[in-house]
Amino acid sequence: MVVRSTIMDTNSFRPEHASELDDATRELTNKRDRLLGESYRLFYRRPVHLVKGLGQYLWDANGDKYLDVYNNVASIGHCHPAVTSAVNEQMQSLNTHTRYLHERILSYSEDILQTMPEAVNKAMYMCTGSEANDLAMRIAHSYSGGTGIIVSQEAYHGTSALTSGASPALGSGQPLSPHTGLIASPDHYRLAGQDAGLWFAQKMQEKIDEMSANGIKFAGFMADSIFSSDGVLPGDPGFLQPAIDVVHKNGGIFIADEVQPGFARTGEAFWGFARHGIVPDVVTTGKPMGNGIPVSGLFAKHDVLASFSDQIPYFNTFGGNPVAMAAAQAVLGVIKDEDLQAHSAIVGQQLLNELKVLQAKYECVGDVRGAGLFIGFELVTDKESKAPNKALALDLIEKLRDRKVLTSVAGPHGNVLKLRPPLAFQAHDIDWLVGALDESLQATL
């Protein structure tokens, strides 16, 4: 039996789609099959062969232009000149590791820590979000003396042994660690009328008690504060605080995985956790930090980090190297100079308003929710039952691809369009996206 995972296989090319491909595309997919490991996946039934990117746009090998509504790796826009210039300049002088002195890592640390709560005052660097979350889990173990990590039911936190064991979104083929506890996602759409904060806090305590009853000491709760893999569930600002209070009351730490909601994306705050007025114990970052250059970070309260770092040396050969720091510094500069947090808030709200027009127009659009330029567009069979409509969502993704709009799906049922464009996305792009969605819905229904 072939095991399908949520985030990797839901919107993917499969061998049975090969007959739909043109000769050039089929040649490339066949070559991938011959040369690359079978674990890799391609987006779309007809994969897109991209050759160029600029800002919020991409071009394929035929010269066709696409609107990118999915990519937070190139967070400030594909091939941003500030990043390419900074990387090129640093590459021509030095690139080495952190066991030599260098100013760039210190300058960047000063600047990034200024965006954090005062108590979060120590920095460490890696190359990927997986590495940052792996270290965060190790810190949680050492600080608490426990091993139990709670994550949401569709969370994705990485690909290392530790993080994949705490990433249910990877699917049933990837076994979860016996020390991982799953907590129900705060699905505000289906919790209508309930106090989501108190509900989630209660679920947190129940899961901690369950782990304890099974002989597992609680170490911490790790969450992406917009619950993006769970279907983009921003909720009202502040609703997470009661659950974090429960975490601390039980001796655990809160790890804020900011790989997706961080770096001004939500518009309401620079960091996703800041929407909720929370001070995390550990913050992890990844993809958007370097706009495509592999760099990630871990930021922590001194006493929390000390429980690990006073005992165990940590070294990551490429983590914090001068080229990566140059890219990260350029990203921070662009976010400030182009006022991208305010931009995300304003344009994100304009987009949300237009998407809600489609929600009112179509019975199959159950909910539209988001914060800044991070929006979930949920497809259902009907608004009364709120039953997830995965088949429609997957067909819609393909129709959008035909109209040169690129995005994908999220959520445990794969029925939520995850609209997360580079922050270069502009108000004038809204017509392209919403128009393509409207046409695609009409063509699909």
From TrEMBL:
Its cofactor is pyridoxal 5'-phosphate. One of its GO terms (molecular function) is pyridoxal phosphate binding. Its EC number is 2.6.1.48. Keywords: Aminotransferase, Pyridoxal phosphate, Transferase. PROSITE patterns: AA_TRANSFER_CLASS_3. It comes from the Bacteria. PANTHER family: ALANINE--GLYOXYLATE AMINOTRANSFERASE 2-LIKE, PTHR45688. Belongs to the class-III pyridoxal-phosphate-dependent aminotransferase family. This is 5-aminovalerate aminotransferase DavT. It comes from Vibrio palustris. The lineage of its organism: Bacteria, Pseudomonadati, Pseudomonadota, Gammaproteobacteria, Vibrionales. The gene is davT.
